[in-house]
Design goal:
single chain, 779 residues, alpha+beta, 8-stranded antiparallel beta sheet, 26 strands
């Protein structure tokens, strides 16, 4: 009977969904400074995601929260957003208020241990009306056995009667238009293509309507009574009225079900509600004999000792473990993305599909896999390594007619090509990851040998030979170590950070070639690495620069002479400065990987230029931060001076509004550079062996603590934090994450790796054969 009833409901919904058409309205994504992201923990079956393992059916739903509201929620592949946001609007005798604009908010973890450390990415958000009329508590997590999101809403009337409304803005099939929606007392439904959703409650709605977005998502609730039709098409809003409350509190359970058709979406929502709040949450958490997030955390063999070297009792490292694992696709095991956010999403056009940072970059991917390995997760880094051929260019890569072996700049998790620039570090890092897993004893020699011929050798050959690239817009000849794009994906040239990874990748490729019996290849790779290393300073250290004593690493050199003062290209709306007026911390990667000693003269001599706080803001890289109630100052760095990847310092606008660049755009401070500097200081302290307790304490108090302070209340570390320069329409505190992207997986990875390095007393990313070859007797 239940199946027949669901089919009848689905048929009625499909009829309604196709009934009314309206003109499209421009739409955007949601605010990108998330305070929480989540998904179910799913256990691998033989290194893959399959139904029937210890966690049962694989749930493929991810959610994000920001400003007290549920924001982008994905179903299917990790980049496939299905909603923009779900808010609660409240009518009161003195007017309408809506979560976000009219409330303050707090975010807390629902499930924590005795020390307050999160045990799962389940959240409690509390929004409080600025006029004190009501309070709304939402508890949010996914159903690990369904493609469903569970939301418990408690409404508290504090000053007179209130009438709450659920306001859902679908963005089905990863776009903000082209949706079809239907509303009834039993459910809010929407679909586009093969993506369907159903929002149902444990009890019926008082009334529900579907309306075109128009100019105001709240138009349906602004009238005296809820207005709108039973269906709508285009850019739409689905609104449901809940019972009026005179006083006190009322709690409602809702489930957002997703599926490939209306029946599946309805069934997922109904099943979650039938299981009920307590049991769904217990399964999600992994309480008792259930397998969930508690089990994943318990499997991380190194987590206990990383907690001990943290400065916050282990809260952020435990959250970081959750964040790194959440941001993995649940169809393609090991597919680790950059962030479950769309940077500056509230001004990003949603009329066309946009992955934002919900995609694979082999560089970010490497950072995450290495951090998971640092935690003692043996399975995910291996799955990540096995995933990598999916994003390597081969003869049969769609659209490719050029040389292969290199790794695509940015792809969807299914390998679909999105960006096709060549970044040599992204080709070196997969080799480095394989070597690391081999030396940890996790990747069997037989497997590594098999991957040598099909993945590692083609990558290493490309790092030596380069060649003519022919794919998409890209028709250039690559001549290593000159990279078409450096790690910020903006320009080509000789880059210290890219060159460091290229040299390290080739040296360890030599070890793998030896293992595979390819002595000639091993010799060739090491010889190329030696040649690149021999010219590092000649290519990338200016001796006639305008800063400091004139001798320092430049960010990028596009020829063989770092002293000729030629300009590099303009990027992100900013000026095109001479190469010797742009400095960054990329040269520290030479130390991290073992290409140069920490006390190398050119390295040490470049630090004053990187750290100079007396320069005008356009040319300044380092900023120091004070935090309320915390003693001391904590350092942070921008990507480089004259960086335009950030909010406008003249107008306060988001980056790239309307797809247009502005000369006022300013890249802000990135927490990852605090971690990179902490790694350098550890390398310096360990030149003569394991550093003493005083040296470790100094690094913890300065760099570990700083990264913890940059995290928000949801224990998420952002891409960028506010540096205090220019208009501040969002009202950010200095050191607070901006609307760029939160959480950035790389930020969490760098923090985890710093803790592992501090605990070990040596840099986690240091490659012994590299240091033995170029940084002899150094750390």
């Amino acid at each position: 009977m239940r199946c027949l009833k669901m089919l009848a409901l689905a048929s009625a919904a499909a009829t309604a969904l196709g009934a009314v058409a309206h003109a499209e309205t421009p739409t955007t994504w949601a605010y990108a400074a998330k305070t929480g992201v989540g998904a179910s923990y799913e256990a691998y079956v033989d290194g893959a995601y399959k139904d029937g393992g210890p966690t049962g059916t694989v749930s493929k739903v991810w959610f994000s929260i920001a400003d007290g509201t549920l924001t982008e929620t994905m179903y299917g592949l990790i980049h496939e957003a299905q909603i923009k946001q779900l808010r609660v609007a409240v009518k009161t005798p003195s007017g309408l208020a809506v979560e976000g604009a009219d409330t303050t908010s707090t975010t807390q973890y629902l499930h924590v241990d005795a020390a307050g450390r999160p045990l799962s990415p389940a959240y409690k958000m509390t929004t409080t009306d600025r006029q004190g009329r009501f309070e709304i508590e939402k508890r949010i997590f996914t159903d690990p056995d369904q493609n469903a999101l569970f939301v418990r809403v408690t409404v508290r009337a504090l000053k007179g009667p209130v009438t709450p409304f659920l306001v859902l803005e679908p963005h089905m099939a990863n776009t903000g238009g082209g949706d079809a929606g239907a509303a009834s007392a039993s459910a809010l439904r929407a679909y586009e293509g093969k993506a369907f959703l159903s929002l149902k409650g444990a009890r019926s709605f008082v009334k529900a309507v579907a309306t075109p977005l128009g100019s105001d998502a709240l138009s349906a609730v602004k009238a005296a009574t809820l207005t709108g039709g039973a269906s709508a098409k285009g850019a739409i809003v689905l609104t449901a009225e809940l019972p009026r409350q005179v006083s006190g509190e009322a709690t409602y359970d809702f489930a957002l079900g997703f599926g490939g058709d209306a029946v599946a979406a309805d069934q997922a929502a109904s099943a979650a509600l039938s299981t009920g709040y307590d049991e769904v949450l217990a399964r999600y958490n992994g309480e008792g004999d259930r397998v969930g997030w508690e089990d994943y955390l318990a499997s991380l063999t190194e987590l206990p000792r990383l907690r001990k070297v943290s400065e916050d009792g282990g809260k952020l490292v435990q959250a970081s473990a959750l964040m790194l694992k959440v941001q993995e696709d649940r169809t393609y095991a090991g597919a680790l993305i950059a962030s479950l956010s769309n940077p500056w999403g509230d001004t990003v056009d949603a009329s066309k599909p946009s992955t934002g940072y919900k995609a694979v970059w082999p560089r970010d991917f490497y950072q995450c896999a290495m951090a998971l390995a640092a935690l003692g997760d043996r399975e995910t880094p291996l799955a990540a390594f096995h995933y990598l051929p999916q994003v390597q260019v081969k003869a049969d890569t769609k659209g490719n007619s050029g040389v292969g072996g290199w790794f695509l700049q940015k792809t969807w998790v299914d390998g679909t090509t999105e960006w096709v620039g060549v970044q040599l570090d992204q080709t070196a890092m997969p080799i480095m990851l394989g070597w690391k897993l081999w030396k940890l004893g996790w990747l069997p020699e037989a497997d590594l040998k098999a991957y040598y011929s099909k993945m590692i050798k083609p990558a290493a050959d490309f790092l030596v030979d380069g060649g003519k690239v022919e794919i998409g817009w890209n028709h250039e000849t690559i001549t290593p170590p000159f990279t078409q794009q450096e790690r910020w994906e903006e320009q080509g040239g000789h880059s210290p950070s890219t060159t460091a990874a290229t040299i390290a990748g080739l040296v360890v490729a030599g070890d793998i070639a030896d293992l595979a019996g390819d002595a000639a290849g091993a010799a060739r790779y090491r010889a190329a690495a030696d040649a690149y290393s021999a010219k590092v300073e000649a290519r990338m250290v200016t001796t006639k620069g305008p800063f400091g004593d004139g001798t320092y690493y430049v960010r990028l050199n596009q020829n063989e002479d770092p002293n000729d003062h030629t300009p590099i290209g303009a990027a992100n709306g900013q000026i095109a400065p001479p190469k010797d007026q742009v400095v960054d911390g990329g040269f520290l990667e030479l130390v991290r990987y073992g290409v140069r000693r920490a006390d190398d003269a050119a390295i040490v001599g470049s630090l004053p230029e990187l750290d100079d706080t007396s320069r005008a803001d356009l040319y300044r890289v380092r900023y120091d931060f004070k935090f309320p109630g915390v003693k001391g100052e904590f350092p942070g760095w921008r990507r480089y001076d004259i960086d335009g990847y950030g909010e406008d310092a003249q107008t306060g606008a988001n980056y790239g509004v309307g797809g247009k660049m502005s000369p006022g755009q300013r890249g802000r401070v990135w927490p990852i550079f605090t971690g990179e500097r902490g790694h350098y200081e550890l390398a310096l302290a360990s030149l003569n062996g394991k550093p003493d307790a005083a040296a470790i304490r100094k690094i913890r108090d300065r760099y570990v603590k700083a990264m913890e302070l940059f995290a928000n209340e949801g224990l998420l570390i952002p891409e960028q934090v506010w540096d205090g320069i220019g208009p501040n329409p969002h009202g950010y505190a200095r050191g607070e994450g901006t609307d760029s992207a939160t959480p950035l997986a790389w930020s969490h990875a760098e923090y985890v790796k710093l803790l592992r390095s501090v605990s070990d007393g040596q840099v986690w990313d240091r490659y012994d054969p590299v240091a033995a070859r170029y940084a002899k007797s150094g750390g």
